[in-house]
Amino acid sequence: MGLRDTLFGRTKQVAPKLDNLFAVTNAAITLDTELDLATSGQAGLCFAASSGVATVETDEDIKQLLDFDPANTSVTLSTDDLGFRWLVVTDPDLESQVTRLHAANTSMVEHGLGPRLLCAVFGFQPKTPPGEGPVRLVYLLKQGTFYPFAPTGPSTRNNELELRVRSFLGTDLPMEKDLSRWMALWNLPVN
Amino acid sequence: MAKTKIESDHGLNVRMFITGLSLVLLYAILVTVMLKLGVSTVVVVAVGAALLFSQYYFSDKIAMFTMHAHEVTPQQEPRLHEIVDRLCALANMPKPRVGISEMDIPNAFATGRSPKSAVICTTRGLMSRLSDEEVEAVLSHELSHVAHRDVAVMTIASGVGMLAGLISRMAMWGAMFSGGGRSKDGENLVLLEMVTWLVSMVVYVIAFLLTMALSRYRELAADRSGAILIGKPSVLASALVHITGDMGRIPRTDLRKAETMNAFFFVPALAGGTAATLFSTHPSLEVRLDALNKLERELNG
Known about the structure:
The complex is a heterodimer.
Chain A: H1 3-7, H2 24-35, E1 37-48, H3 59-65, E2 75-79, E3 84-90, H4 94-110, E4 117-126, E5 135-140, E6 145-149, H5 159-169
Chain B: H1 10-37, H2 42-57, H3 59-66, E1 69-71, H4 78-91, E2 97-101, E3 108-111, E4 119-123, H5 124-129, H6 132-147, H7 150-182, H8 186-230, H9 233-243, H10 245-249, H11 255-258, H12 274-278, H13 285-300
Parallel strand pairs in B: 2-4
Antiparallel strand pairs in B: 1-2, 3-4
Helix pairs in contact in B: 1-7, 1-8, 2-7, 4-6, 6-8, 6-9, 7-8, 8-9, 8-13, 9-13
């Protein structure tokens, strides 16, 4: 932020960084070999459901905006307990998940909804259950960085596993270095 | 005071004694130097004592205020009270007041001028990160601080350091006046002034480092007695691993709730190495884990 923005109390809206999303496919290989984790078949996009901006408040509007076939049941829109909207893609192929989320993101940015995007989440599950439980890779769209989130209950998370994921993925993904930004996403609709 | 069932560690006792002795020696040297220079000490001592006394007397209120903590009743926090009750019965101590801070940072502290007026306090972040057994281990460490009267000990120790600082400043003035009174020789006056200033600064730095060292020994002593009280050093070790270092910095706050607060988060740059250890009030995690490991072997051996 420049001096003038500071003086006049203006904040620049941060554009989401989308390019790093594709790195997830590389990370998946490492997760598979090192931690025995495979995609859960679900990925999600979380955005704030504020009013205004555009008339895209209904599910149909958003689905149309994202060029998804209305009959396609592999894409669902839901609202969580905290009032955030989730676009969840169910697809066994990780690469296809990434492509579809990237397309959705790009489309939302084009329609001026970029500032409302919060994060993208990819679900991973142990190949031989129960293993150590599921791990989500959270992508902070504004920061352009990833971090792992391994919930073990309604408000508990496995920090040890998360730090181990970081140590393995450090070379594949731009990991969030500031651990205090590794915020939880309790009760998220992405498995 | 009733004898508490917390055993002592001779090595630690010796080191604490030496640290304490060094502090007193330092104070004595300073007083001698100062008397030679002919400074009136009454004002300095009075001010220092008043400050120290209030720090000591209101220690519980100050700590609770800075941690945004409030006292809780057994009805509000049955689990926490139950753990404290059990530990106090084990250690044969009066039960302190129990407080909770709503902060997400995992931390716990005990404060208060005497075991009777003590407050033991934990944060929500600590309770949600640790198992009941680990919370018990941390509270047992904090109760040991109460039993050891660490608030009083550290107040006196830091008070000596503070007095040293105040007195050094007075000594400087004293040197200027007495030097000026004896002769009008400018060069001598400047030289004397510089020497006192230098000596007092060195004294102050050493006093500070010794206070920090004493604090680290008290922490180790509390680790030890706390672990012995519950009989499981490994549980305290696991609690320490979970709340310090990387793990302690991963938040429990939800991303969706914290989105707008991100700007307010402030993370201090953590520096490793000896300088950080030298100026720290707590020993490093490795030192504490080593000590607990050794204790575990002793208890099992």
